[in-house]
Amino acid sequence: MACWLFKSEPDVFGFDDLIAKGAAGEQWDGVRNYQARNNMRAMKVGERGFFYHSNVGKEVVGICEVVAEAHPDSTAEDPKWECVDVKAVARLVTPVTLDDAKAEPRLRDMVLVNNSRLSVQPVSDAEWDVILELAGGTRPL
Questions:
Q1: CA pair distance 124, 12, nearest whole angstrom
Q2: How remote is the C-alpha of 32 from its chain's centroid?
Q3: Coil/strand/helix, residue 109
Q4: What is the DSSP code (8-state) at residue 23?
Q5: 65: how many CB neighbours lie within 10 A of its CB?
Q6: What's the CATH number where 98 sits?
Q7: Which of 10, 91, 136, 139 sits between 20 and 30 A of 20, alpha carbons compared?
Q8: With bands split at pLDDT 50, 70 and 90, how would you rate the model's confidence at 116?
Q9: CB 100 within 8 A of CB 61
């Protein structure tokens, strides 16, 4: 299964907001970047992603799971924009900051380190494991 990273500004929609949506989750709407949209088109139900707080905090704070595959984004007038639905599944014990990731040699090729502006991005299995190691694991919700 593929792994992902979803970025959101915590003052707009943070991890606690996703937790509040419960098991139904929420559509990951508002993405208007072709590469990010194509990443969502590739996602399958059950795949997991890191939830990253951008702008404020700049840190990976939790894990979410894809609960619905790509479908039209209800916030878009143009049908070319699609999104997936995700639900929160766990918090990281310790958030992993962008600076932490940049300082970790094993993450030098991670998209987050090299293209931190991309809002939905792939994460390799090895990168996933390193982030979880740096976080000290997860706490179930």
A1: 27
A2: 16
A3: coil
A4: G
A5: 16
A6: 3.10.590.10
A7: 136
A8: confident
A9: no
Dist. CA 55–CA 28, nearest whole Å: 18
Cα gap 55→10, rounded to integer Å: 8
pLDDT of 121 over the 80 cut? yes
3-state secondary structure 61-89: EEEEEEEEEEEECCCCCCCCCEEEEEEEE
Report residue 126's pLDDT band, with 50, 70 and 90 as the boundaries. Answer: very high
User: Domain range for residue 91?
Assistant: 3-140
What are the φ and ψ backbone dihedral angles of 72, each rounded to 5 degrees? Answer: -55, 135
pTM given for the model = 0.96
**Distance (Å, whole) CA 19 – CA 141:** 8
Percent of the chain scored above 90 by pLDDT? 95
Whether 87 contacts 64, CB under 8 Å: yes
| Radius of gyration of the chain from its Cα atoms, rounded to whole angstroms | 14
pLDDT score at 52? 98
Closest of 52, 70, 68 to residue 60, by C-alpha = 52
Q: Count how many domains the chain has.
A: 1
